[in-house]
Design a protein that fits this description.
alpha/beta; TIM Barrel; eight-stranded parallel beta barrel; two-stranded antiparallel sheet; 12 strands; globular; binds zinc ion
Length: 386
């Protein structure tokens, strides 16, 4: 018995709703039981910043707090300490799990903009930490020296806390046309350098971030974005995640050509914050992703070995906009994470939905008992649909 893929991950999102380390440890216990070996921790986003960085006190006093969540009127806040994160790393290592920190750049940074508006192309001192979901225009400006000083300090902290050789830099959903394309500093820079468009600037930005991390012995990962790939911003050997619904088969082909490693987090199978039962809260837009739909994941999407041998694994992503507490996180993550775990471990010819369903009856009891977990109560307490 050995795994089909070396990378079998889950991602948690304390940026959207803070998850105390003691809760993360419970999440990790179950991960380890199902032989997941990578925990990606999404530490920063528009709705919150959770990594303390020496010299930047406003990350805690401003970026880690918001006045409410999804119009519920209730203030929310949370910040890890360096020691807590180190403890988490140690707890995970003892269970065979590597922790990969994610610092999202250049976008998804409204929480940072609330504290340090001067890092952005069009500083607005009235910026507040975002209280609802959606993509924003808060992209850091690559032409301000203080931005690079800040990220040097961030990366130094990551080096101190996380022994992993990987930092996930996000790189998703960054509306460049409405930001960098119109930034006077960017415009002047592109003219000086003879750059034909904003993608060339982005490529240079990613390379610079990457080389700063290389100094600490770390490589980058990114969420794959097709328009950026077309502009050739990814470097041979980088690892990227496929995530957008329906794009994975073509992404497998494209990334093979570009010499990238690929991790499968296909939205239609691996987004574990989506409802899994018809009628469950879908926030008005999420597709229902049943257990069977998650189970159907073949990470290679049926492609022959020679076209798919750059796939290094699978990852379930548990986005946190609508998951305010551990009960809700577990309620959405399981049992679908069991399906993702099997997709990462077993070759397709050893898998069957009927067999999986039969096995799962016992696992259901195990999961419920292990966490003294009241599924009905959690279901009732799901945040109200708005
Ligand atoms: Zn700018």
């Amino acid at each position: 018995d050995e795994p089909r893929y070396p990378w079998r991950g889950l991602m948690v999102d304390p940026a959207r709703h803070f998850i105390p380390v003691k809760d993360l440890e419970k999440f990790v216990d179950l991960m380890a039981y199902y032989k997941f070996n990578k925990l990606q921790i999404h530490l920063t986003d528009d709705q919150g910043w959770r990594l303390p960085v020496p010299g930047y006190p406003k990350l805690k006093s401003i970026s880690s707090k918001r006045k409410e969540s999804m119009r519920n009127g209730t203030p929310h806040e949370g910040m890890y300490t360096k020691q807590e994160l180190k403890d988490l790393v140690e707890y995970c290592a003892a269970r065979g799990i590597e922790v990969i920190p994610e610092i999202d750049v250049p976008g998804h940074n409204q929480a940072l903009a609330a504290a340090y508006p001067e890092f952005f192309c069009f500083p607005n001192p009235d910026t507040k930490v975002k209280t609802d979901e959606g993509v924003t225009l808060h992209l850091i400006c690559p032409h301000k020296p203080e931005v690079w000083e800040f990220y040097a300090a961030v990366f130094k902290e990551l080096k101190d806390i996380f022994p992993s050789g990987i930092v996930h830099l996000g790189g998703d959903e960054a509306p460049l046309e409405k930001t960098w394309a119109q930034c006077p500093l960017s415009i002047r820079y592109r003219e000086q350098k003879g750059m034909k468009d904003v993608h060339e600037e982005l490529k240079e930005f990613i390379k610079k971030m990457s080389s700063m991390l290389a100094v600490h012995g770390k490589r980058i990962q990114l969420w794959y974005e097709k328009p950026w790939a077309k502009a050739n911003i990814y470097s041979k050997g980088d690892a990227v995640f496929t995530w957008r619904m329906g794009q994975t088969p073509s992404t497998i082909t494209e990334t093979k050509k570009q010499g990238l490693s690929l991790i499968i987090a296909a939205g239609e199978h691996c987004y574990l914050d989506y409802p899994q039962i018809p009628g469950q809260n879908n926030r008005g837009w999420m597709p229902t992703t049943t257990l069977e739909q998650s189970y159907k994941l073949d990470p290679a999407f049926g492609k022959p070995e020679k076209e798919a041998n750059h796939i290094i694994g699978v990852q379930g992503t548990v986005w946190g906009e609508h998951l305010p507490a551990l009960d809700h996180i577990l309620y959405r993550t399981y049992p679908r994470a069991c399906a993702i775990a099997e997709a990462g471990w077993s070759p397709m010819n050893a898998r069957s939905w009927e067999n999986f369903r039969r096995k799962l009856a016992d696992h259901r009891q195990f999961i419920l008992k292990r966490f003294n977990y009241d599924m009905e109560r959690t279901k009732e307490n799901e945040p109200p649909f708005k």
